[in-house]
Amino acid sequence: MTAAALTASRAGPLKGRVRAPGDKSISHRALILGALATGETAIEGLLEGDDVLRTAQAMAAFGAEVERLGEGSWRVRGRGGLSEPAEVIDCGNSGTGVRLILGAAAGFDLSATFTGDESLRGRPMRRVLKPLGEMGATWTASAGETLPLTLKGGHLRHIAYRLPEPSAQVKSAVLLAGLHARGGAEVIEPEATRDHTERMLRAFGATVEVVAEGAGRRIRLPGGQALSGTAVRVPGDPSSAAFPIVAALITPGSEVTVEGVLLNPLRTGLLETLKEMGADLTVSNLRDEGGEPVGDVTARHSPLRGVEVPPERAPSMIDEYPILGVAAAFAEGPTVMRGLAELRVKESDRIALMAAGLAACGVGVEEEPEGFTVVGSGRGARGVAGEGRVVTHGDHRIAMSHLVLGLASERPVAVDQPGMIATSFPGFVALMRGLGGEIA
Ligand code: S3P
Asked: CB under 6 Å to ligand 1: residues?
């Protein structure tokens, strides 16, 4: 990880066709389900970011055979279960990694110690420990319900768990534990969250029953099911594609196509919002890849107007609010983003850091307890000063968002700890440079 700053400066229009890196959520799940399954799982397009590489390492420590065959091409040979790891499981920066693996590991008669980097050690684990505890798992932690902690699993019983917060990580942890619980597991989510675990469990041969319930869903995983290894093609990550897409929308003269973007309706909230703001976005070559909808997204520079984002849309774009805040800085009028309590417990407090970062770049922004409002100048690039040096607290999405802002603002924008971008988008700087962006 490099500690030196990176600076983005205004250059010409952004032009070209690129591929987004593999979807982070699907990459974690492919490795974990591959390890839980019996037989071989062949993965293509795996995201080789630090978060996912930690999960690959963890699955090997739990006894799966994990092999890299080439770029994005991985093979996992599972033994139908996990065994006790000899080493501490270090999930680095990854909340998804640790929470899903805690769920998967809880199903087995083993003890495992988990830790992570400074950010991850500060993030709430109670949200997964509570349901796993109700199923029969136990744990010890030196400081409250945070990492490092040691989990003891096995002999789990059925749970019907209503999610207190909209979290696909918690839903997934309970379902993965349910695979090895007597009677399986049921999760009730009041708001629908990304459903990659449910889709992938089916691809691995499991039965998952999903019933719509109001704005949410009831998901039932019957007990006593075994998974069989399968082929997984990982689509491009919409949360990463968001950066070149917004960069093109705010940089005059730009036209950028991002190919192979995952368009699962539970992940497309940002595209919907940008369209409401007046963005010229088109989707072509819509297809199905491995049970997920995928398409090529073309973004052209567009005058944008501020909007009020419906709070119920948050789960479908939760990781995209930082980059939406940047698009909003170039729009005319206020963009109101609310219902975002979850944003405060991500890799950083993203509400506080976006408010501070945008303000440092001369953008009008108001922080609220559960959201923020960005007041765009409506004068496009000429309305955003830039010239900020942005503190990222090691948060990859805060760094990438402000670098995109710097590509279109009057004066350059610098971010600290840019090395952390490699947790989710290792090729970000090269990709943006390839489109004509100036980042050095
Ligand atoms: C993820 C779910 C979301 C998201 C994270 C990935 C997943 O977190 O922010 O980047 O893969 O399940 P929550 O479940 O905490 O909302």
From this structure: 25, 96, 167-169, 172, 194, 318-319, 342
Q: Is the pLDDT of residue 107 over 80?
A: yes
Alpha-carbon span 106 to 154, nearest angstrom:
6
Rg (CA), the chain: 21
Exactly one of 90, 117, 195, 319 is catalytic; name it. 319
- For residue 145, the CA-to-ligand 1 centroid distance in Å is 19
Amino acid occupying residue 76: V
**Where in the chain are the domains?**
5-19+236-439, 24-233
Tell me the whole-structure pTM to 2 decimals: 0.97
Structure tokens at 341: 């309590």
Equal CATH topology for 5-19+236-439 and 24-233: yes
Q: What is the CATH number of domain 24-233?
A: 3.65.10.10
Task: Encode pLDDT of 33-43 as tens digits.
Answer: 999 999 999 99
Whole-angstrom distance, CA of residue 422 vs CA of residue 94: 12
Residues 138, 140: Cα–Cα separation, whole Å:
7
Measured in Å, how far apart are the chain's first and last C-alpha atoms? 16
Best probe residue, ligand 1, of 33, 96, 196, 197 (max atoms within 8 Å of C-beta): 96
Query: pLDDT digits over 301-360, tens only?
Result: 999 999 999 999 999 999 999 999 999 999 999 999 999 999 999 999 999 999 999 999
- 319 catalytic per annotation: yes
Pairing relationship of beta strands 65-70 and 73-79 according to DSSP bridges: antiparallel
Nearest to 261 by CA among 285, 230, 280: 285
Fold of the domain spanning 5-19+236-439: UDP-n-acetylglucosamine1-carboxyvinyl-transferase; Chain (3.65.10)
Closest Cα partner for 393 from 373, 420, 412? 420
